[in-house]
Records
---
Amino acid sequence: MIEVTGLTKVYGDRAAVDGISFTVGRGEIIGFLGPNGAGKTTTMRVLTGYVPPTSGTARVAGFDVQEAPIEVKRRIGYLPEHPPLYREMVVRPFLRFVAGVRAVPRKEIETRVDRAIERCGLQQVAGRLIGNLSKGFQQRVGLAQAILHDPDVLILDEPTVGLDPSQIREIRQLIKSFAGAHTVILSTHILAEVTMTCNRVLIINEGKIAADETMQAMAARGERTRRIAVRVARAADGVEGQIRAIPGVLDVRREDAEDGAFVVEIDGARDVREQIAARAVGQGWGLLEMRAMTRSLEDIFIGIIRGEAA
Amino acid sequence: MRNVLTIAWREIRAYFTSPLAYVVIGVFLCLSGAAFWVHLVRFSQYCLQYGSNPYVLSQLNVNELVIRRLFGFMSVVFLSVIPFVSMRLLAEERKSGTAELLFTSPVTTTQVILGKFFGAAFLLVSMIGLTLTYPLLILFSNARPDMKTTFVGYLGVLLMGLAFLSIGLLISSMTENQIVAAVGAFGAFLVLWIISWLGDSATITLADIMNKVTFGMWDKLHFGMAGPTLGDLLRKLSIIEHFEDFSKGVFDTEHAVFYLSVVFFALFLTQRVVDSRSWRG
């Protein structure tokens, strides 16, 4: 559905996006994750045809954003970071106007507007001035204008910023309900959001793609144990050497803060917990505790952003 | 065309749901109404004064003394009122972020600009249209203005207003600050207004200028040294000079073509400015 190859956008002497490539298939919900200023918004603006790329290409549904901008724009629903709302307009006429410029056939405008209002839960505010609505409702109006024309691709730039927790949950539910029928690209700097709504994550940092994985692969990274915490009652001098001798153990460090605590670095392919336990019992160290140190998604994300090998 | 109308219609709604349209139209009607009344009273005084002298009485013309002056005054009011109509057109879209909505919709830049222009033109037409009541008010009195002359004058007022509006739109496309857009437009109108004052002092001929910049080649090639002066050229650029004939009730295509060219050229430049974000960083 979306193919981006070698996309670069330079502002002045700074490259906001630096040669990124990725593809998104039909019906996927992908999370665009990265710290502020990583290039998420710029990438989205290029995809929507709002700013042209400095080099590289972006195609949506087979149409190049540079060569056939109108065809691309017809197929995209876009919610920018700041919802583009005319504050002096009433919700329903505003949606009618958007339907007009988004080339919805005249006869269908009313039904489409009704459906968008219903899907985004705007029934009780449909007759109110947009400028007087709460931030949560404004965000929903923004979402309604993006899905009005039933676009193939939905691009949402930080859709939950500035909302309270219950509103965030509602918006996420709404986005999840678009799965299947629409291809969704969602940008955020909140990891939990990706975990809850997306099936694939694209981590972008300093204009480059740092990781492009399915949520399962991402979670598996954390599962793969690479470190084991061990604590024994009687830590004799030879403990480190003895553990290091077990095949599959790469390194053993003594933790200074706690008496008798060690961190064992292991080769990810082998699980050596059993051997360590056997050795501890055999040598009479008095095994008190042993646990695999799994890494949370948050740790993985920060590791990737910092450029550490995960 | 449908896109243009959709955008124009939203623009009209935006004007008429905010106080702006009412304030602008109200100020314009108050000022032009007062001017009309003043000139009408003066005209009737002349008529009373010279009522016994049939020769002078035959020289008194309501079109000349009342309606033409009304048009002259309207053109002055335009100077200060139109910047407030045009300032928000594109500047506000950029400021509030709604430009992102418009320019990611399947509409072309030209359609957006035409929609904006027609929307504002609607406000202008309704503003001028309401003043039609003034000549109609005295149509059935003894003054009996000549309506053909009056309509030609109105056509001139409308064309001049559209020319101002297109320049205002151009300046609104260059900034996201509405006040800058208004002041800029006002300045541009004034320059186009007073440019003809330079006409009398700039007596150097165009041929002379060409001769100077080509280091005498012009003269050697016998292209001729006579012809219009720089002043003549500047006078042709003045928005008010072209209005003279219209206000007299004389329709000359030269002036109509001038105003329409200004509109076309300004809208074209606006389109270039808006599209320039595609190659500016």
---
Amino acid sequence: MAKKRRKKIHKDAKWPRVVSFEERDEVLSFWEERFGIPKNVFEGYLILSTSKNYWLFAAPEEIKPFQMLKVQTVGLLFTRRVSHWLKPTSTALQRFGHHATKNIVVLSPAELDRLRRERKMPFIVEHIEEGYVILKCGEKIWGCGLYAKGSLISFLP
Amino acid sequence: MLSLNEARTYFERYQDLIPDFEGFLAHLKEPLPLYFRINELKCPRPQIVLDGLARQGVKAEPVPGFPGFYRAEPRDFPLGSTEEYYLGYIYPMTISSALPVFALEPEPGEYILDMCAAPGSKTTQIAQASQDRAIIVANDRRLDRLTALVANLKRLGVACVMTTLYRGEQFPFGVPFDKVLVDAPCSGEGRYRQGYEGELLYQKEGHTNLPAIQKGLLVRAFDLVKVGGVVVYSTCTFNPEENELVVDYLLRKRQAEVIPCDYPLPHHPGVTEWEGKILHPSLNYAARFYPHETNSVGFFVIKLRRLA
């Protein structure tokens, strides 16, 4: 089992920015186009942004009073911007991945074990486009991988 | 650390308070059973967890009255190193610790403050109870404890929580909270039993005035909640000075009413008199839970409404 890693949180974190309608649509379109997860799955959630990260947060009736608070974290780390690409986080895939209809790589327990150990392994599979994929084993969604050039790379924490 | 044969002397002052005192002392020799909660935000079907644990030799039985809670055998099994834990499908948590959130009755859309939240068992329980739709502020005054809370929120895939690092008694005004949970730091007497690794804070840190801290937290919680809103105050200790006397202080200072609650575990009314001091009569609506009757940790829970 993986070692528990705990990332330190910043003592002086700032309130993340609520993204514009266009930016929200860009992020949700990525989830829809890449994994077939409909945008309405995220209805009732705000998307917030810190430098390169998007966070999902249950939308309050009015956000202003909460913005007066000095916060450490807000919501669930949802999607990251990696150079020009958007990348889903494993935790968000574990939470919402069961709505997905495509780009799901189903691994046997032995394959999953190897991937978690070696982080990268040769892998050829049909009906999967190159790019970020959902790693699944049985009914369990494990998180995010990258499928490219006959290889599967693990982004599992 | 208090050894088991000192327990009688230590708990003697509660002899008239704790029902079947001898049974209580005998029960302290039993280790705490292992319980966990399933996180339906992530786990597609409870059976996946039950089958997965069964393959590792763990037998899990549902706990009557506690939806989503299971008792696991063997009780020393390291649930924290299973893939069910890693994937955020389960949260190990003793059943009496779930009672404050039962009293809170969280609903989607409500603004809820969890004032002393880390490491997050109750915060995540509130999130689940509201289907991830309450707006929860999870506060703790210590950064290291808050870091553990943030790790648990991520592990369970909770999106409706923001975390803050204030001293509870100085939490800023401005958010019209519907509900506030004060699961106060306490001496932890209710957790004490054989194999208990912690320490009884009340005895150990003579310089820490826990009741004073608890009063500060409760009064602030009351002032933060909107009129008509709910404050739940809980501890895992038997000591009336940390329980009824703290709430008595609030009832004298502010306009609050105690709301009776139903719980799925045997409990006893709060005390209305302690060491010669007469307390507010409505404190009998508080609930006291004892380990030998609940097979869990001793707890105190009271639900209050702000009247003005």
